[in-house]
Structures are given as structure tokens and as C-alpha cells.
Amino acid sequence: MAHNQEWLDRQERTRWFLQDRFGMFIHWGLYAIPARGEWVRNVERTTVEDYQAYFDEFDPVDYDPRAWARAAKQAGMKYAVLTAKHHDGFCLFDSKLTDYKSTKTKAGRDLVAEFLEAFRAEGLKVGLYYSLIDWHHEDYPAYGDAHHPMRDNEAYKRDPSTFDRYLDYMHGQVRELLTNYGKLDLMWFDFSYDEMQGEKWRASELIRMMRTLQPHIVIDNRLEAGGEGGGSIYTKEPLAYAGDFASPEQIIPPTGVTDADGQPIPWEACVTLNNNWGYVASDTNYKTPTLVIRKLIECVSKNGNLLLNVGPDARGRIPRQSLDILAEVGDWMALNGDSIYGCGQAELPKPDWGRYTQKGNKLYAHVFEESVGAINLAGLAGRIKRARLLADGSELPVSRPWNAALFEADAFFNFARPEHYTYPLPDARGTVVELE
Ligand code: H79
To answer: H or E stretch including 432?
Structure first.
């Protein structure tokens, strides 16, 4: 089956996205105040009235998106996505269609506009997250809806015929975002479920409008799917609203994301730094910088991106622990970013000591495990012109040591100079050798 135009356009639109590989997700809203996660209303069945306390109180005096942008850039991230509206319906932008927005709080600021300006100023690409689900809007199904805080509260029975009013509102807000805020590089919708998918959102109409306003905007696949995947993005004839990339949530697909013929489909794993998207002070279950680095490498080795989340607190500060992790990831990226940006899956299978990424005729050997003896480059005998430690450019001899005579089809290298049998990895987080 031939590719349709949607498929071909996707190739064009996602060029920068596949190049950049590493982005920052930012989950921020009223839920930073209760600090029990962005699903707090749902989990605790909080009414709109009870949640109102956080709206009345919201006053992020330390909001300085330029500091966020510097942290993202220093970490080696190339794009960022902010929650313009999460499921609770609170808007971080000055929408004319609601008063449930940051400009009507003590903040008195268009937080989205300031985010966009700050991140663009650092040279990062910018995206907005917009929740399809809305627990605040009175025309969004509540009673009986799988994901609504009031799903089992009969007082919240709603007339299904008014759902179109919500869709007018939702389309109107997307129009505002794509009209009033300059060029947006990415739009991250969240999320479809059960029969709430595709044309239930009037998705064809929405996409037509979006492509008229901003033809190049990259869009996720969640007008048609949830975090578990699905939808026509996996086919050679995706629908107009299939999206430009798959969005596995809190998981890295074992073998990447491919279509029926095994051809790669753009994808981005969205992953939290601790165990929550929104700010939760008590959640100190942070991933180590080494794990983050290795998971980023893993994504790229499977042709994917990593969208790594931070959850700023109610005052507007990214948690100290998150900043510390990002700084260390950034130190590694500053020296080894060539093995990430513009790279993808290698032609060779995964080696047992780590992973490969590849860009053209350059192969990046990411060594995670200390070796006993020389490191085996299976399948590369006679094919390597030179090997360099990426972090400092130093030469690494590629040879076949005496004790590898039986494996003579393979090439080997060794971090030791002169050659020893064991040697500590130059960088325990992930040592990268550039092979040409
Ligand atoms: O915005 C982030 C999440 O809020 C949202 N998507 C990411 C990017 C998301 N939507 N659905 N899910 C995450 C998965 C749903 C998980 C749930 Fe639960 C399990 C909802 C209710 C039970 C997690 C655990 C949230 C509350 C308890």
C-alpha cells in the first residue's frame, strides 16, 4: 500500500522533532497547591466548589520562566511543552472564552505568553499541552464518565446534547492558542478513551483549523488514542487527526514504534522525574541522573524522543532535586550530545555492554558496563576507520587482542592505554565511543 499525503506531510513536519530528541514537559497548575498530583480532584472526588479555594489562593510569586528555560537548555533539551490547560480546566493563558484562567487569579499574568517568550529567547522550540478532558466545564460529561471526578455523583448528570457547546469552547481555545501566541512548534492533546476519540472531539474539523493557522505544527496522536497507543498513526494511510507522533506514557517501547512493515514511526516517551507529573513535595522517588541519561540513549537507540517532566511548585519553582538531576544530565549532554541529536537506531543489533546510536556513517557505542578484557564490536571487523572517546576526542585503538583469536570475525577496543584486562569506564554514567 502506498503512503497517503498525511504520511508524507508527517515526514516533513517531524524533521526538527526527530533531530532534537530531548524535551522538557512542564506540569503546572492549581494542583501544585494541594501538591497531591494533577489528578487530585479525580482521586479525591473534589467538587468544582471545593477546588475553588486553590484558584482564590493561586499566587506564583517566584514564576520566572527564564530560569526554567535556562535549566532546560543547560540540560541539553531542545524543546519544551507546558500545560496550557490540564484536566482540571484551569487555563494558564488569557482566554476570552472563560474566567477560569491565570489572569483572573492573584497571578494576574498570562503564564503561557511568558513561558513562550522565555523559551524562544533561549532558542528552544515551544509546545503546549491542552487537555481534551475538562472537569470544570459544565458541558463536559460528568456522571458516568470513566475519568470524571463526579462520575458517581448523580447530581452531575448532564444532558449529552450540550456536549457540542464544550467542543465549541475547546476548538475556540485551540484557535486562540494558535492565533494569539505566535508560531507554536508542537501541540500535545491529552487524551482519548473509550468512545471519546476522533470525531467525538470533531477532530477532522479541529485539525483542518489548526493546519490552516499553523501548517507546520507537530501534533501528538491523542485525538485518536491514549497513552497506551492505538489509532491510524500506525498505518500507511493515517487519518488527518492521527497525529505526527506516538506518545507512550511512562514506558519505553521494547522495540520502538513501527508500522506493519517494520518502518519507524516518530514517537516520544513522556516520563516523570519522580513518580508524579504535578508537584508532590513528599515524592522524593527521583530517577538518578545516570538512569535518565541511559533512558534517553535507549529512546534514541529505538528512534524515539524523551519528553522529561518537571512539576514546579505553587510559587513557580522547579524542585531543587529536579534541577540538580537536569544539571548533571546537562554536563553529560554537553560532552556527548553528538551521540543524541540527529541520531537514531543503528544498523547493528544491541550489544551486550550497552547500546548503539547512529548518525550517517558515525556509530556511537554507549558503554554502560565495565568490561573484562577488551570490548567486543561484533560485526565491525575491518569496517572501522577510527574510534574516539566522544567526551575528549582521544584515540582508542581498535584491535584484536591475543586472547580473542577465536573470535576473529570481530573487532575490539579497550579503554586502557596500554591495554589492560580491566579498566574503569571513563564516565560511569555512559561512556560514548564514536566509531567511523
Ligand atoms: O498529564 C499527564 C497525566 O495527568 C495524564 N497524561 C500525562 C501526560 C494521564 N492521563 N491518564 N493517565 C495519565 C493515566 C491514568 C492514570 C490513572 Fe490514576 C489511574 C487515573 C486514575 C487511576 C494516576 C493514578 C492518576 C491517578 C491515580
So the answer is: strand 431-435
Q: What is the pLDDT of residues 188-230, one digit of tens each?
A: 999 999 999 999 999 999 999 999 999 999 999 999 999 998 8
CB 374 within 8 Å of CB 401: yes
Q: Report DSSP letters for 308-368, one per residue.
A: EEE---TTSPPPHHHHHHHHHHHHHHHHHGGGTTT-B--SSPPPTTEEEEEETTEEEEEE-
Q: How many CB atoms lie within 10 A of CB 339?
A: 28
**Is residue 418's pLDDT more than 70?**
no
Percentage of the chain lying above the pLDDT 90 cut: 86
* Alpha carbon of 332 to ligand 1 centroid (Å): 31
Q: Examine the pLDDT at 419 and tell me if it is beyond 70.
A: no
Residue nearest to atom 12 of ligand 1 (CA): 227
pTM to 2 decimal places: 0.97
CA of 305 to the centre of ligand 1 (A): 20
Do the Cβ atoms of 256 and 233 come closer than 8 Å? no
Domains recognised in the chain with CATH numbers: 5-339 (3.20.20.80), 354-435 (2.60.40)
Interface confidence (ipTM) of the complex? 0.96
What CA–CA distance (Å, rounded) separates 338 from 139?
49
Nearest residue (by CA) to ligand 1, atom 18, is: 39
Question: Do 248 and 269 contact (CB within 8 A), yes or no?
Answer: yes
Cell triple for residue 287? Answer: 530517577
The binding-site residues of ligand 1, defined as CB within 6 angstroms of any ligand atom, are: 27, 38-39, 43, 190-191, 227, 249, 270, 277
How many residues would you count in the chain? 436
Q: Are 83 and 29 in contact (CB under 8 A)?
A: yes
pLDDT the model gives residue 218: 98
pLDDT of 271-310, one tens digit each?
Answer: 999 999 999 999 999 999 999 999 999 999 999 999 999 9
